[in-house]
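Reading group handout, session on sequence-to-structure problems. Before we discuss, look at one worked example. The prompt was deliberately terse, the way you'd type it at a terminal:

> structure Pentatricopeptide repeat-containing protein

The input record follows.
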Amino acid sequence: MAMATRTKVVAKRSKKYLEEALYSRLFREGISPQSVRQQLEGFLKSRKRVFKWEVGVSIRKLRAHKRFYPALKLSEVMAKRGMNPTVSDQAIRLDLVAKSRGISSAEEHFINLPEPAKNHLTYGALLNCYCKELETEKAEALMEKMKELRFASRPMAYNSLMTLYSKTNQPGKVPGIIQEMKANDVMPDCFTYNVWMRSLAAMNEISGVERVIEEMKRDGRVAADWTTYSNLASIYVDAGMFQKAEGALKELEKRNARHDVVAYQFLITLYGRTGNIVEVYRIWRALKLAHPKMANVSYLNMIQVLVNLKDLPGAEACFKEWENKCSTYDIRVANALIRAYINEGMLDKAEVIKKRAKMRGGRLNAKTWEIFMNYYLKEGDMKMAHWCADRAIKKGRSHGRIWLPPLEATSAIMTYFEGKKDVVAAEKFIELLQIVQKDLGAEVFETLIKVYAAAGKKSPGIRRRLKMENVVVSEEMEKLLETISME
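And the output record:
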């Protein structure tokens, strides 16, 4: 109702304002970084006005799509234009600073906040940043400060700290945090119980996990939602307790009254992991009934599950259905079937999908070429493996991402150049790798030394080059280095 009212307000506003809702403008041409950036720049240059609620909704949507820098720019520019941020806005901006410019910039931003803005929200945002960056000492020190200031009266801060301990392989610290919450009368939420269960599962205490569920039921203050049971089912699957996992999945279904797409995807994935293909198809039908217009990611998930269940005909049928319905050709979906064909040795079929994807407007990405590279490496066709690696690196760069072949693949390709005695090709490959990542490590340069030695060629300045790269070779390689060095 509130959104409908706001839509009417947008329709009635004067020419000084943007003619459409800001979030609609930003995603007018899709969610790619380039299109979002262009739309944002166009809006900012127009100097058109918008309502504050639109800015808030736009930032929330940008964050959901991981467009952190545009979200930060929008937040900062609108503040400079006189749109006063709330305390909640300040906390969100701090999080965006961390994600866009790094943790040190977030710390500086926090220090420069006006004192009234340094409350439980901004402290909590900084704590969350430390926890995500796995800065244990800083997180623990900040948590102590929050306790002194009485800013740790809600579960979010404790949840962040427990998540940090789980990620840093310290699950044994989580039960102590739970006890502290109980002692300080901090009411847990569903996330608290989920992290608690996961920590116990990490210590192989499945009976402890079950006691947590029972305690949650007895307490009654926090109602278990579908995430609670997806978490429980996943724990049972990891433990190989498939019958109990399916019982938890039935509970998950009961709690998915709102027909959440993500819940359906968890059901499909987890039933797939139990090997129950009948239930996988049943949930798939239920998902299509609840959401006739499905997102690409739902097809991607289903195809991956069917491939893992060795149901290649089912995956092919699902892919064909997606191709007939999709409005944008998502290369991730094509890659899922390409990988399935490659794993079965069906190179011709994989090539057909690749060509069809290009014809349909799908942008082949680094992952596409990595799949083919791995096939050729396995087959020993090093010429094609090198070509695919070259394409993958360049595609990664063109999409604004970093992709490097695994060290094993790089070594295999360099060994190929060694056999061919091709110093020029080896140097070009190293040059390409360094465009993406400056520090390649000693092992890569040791393979380059071997190429020079095999070719019987000298490398003037090789020692100086290694020194500049901070590379120290092994004693064995040092002897080989003497044969190619002219220094």
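Points for discussion. First: The radius of gyration is 27 Å. Second: The chain has a mean pLDDT of 94.
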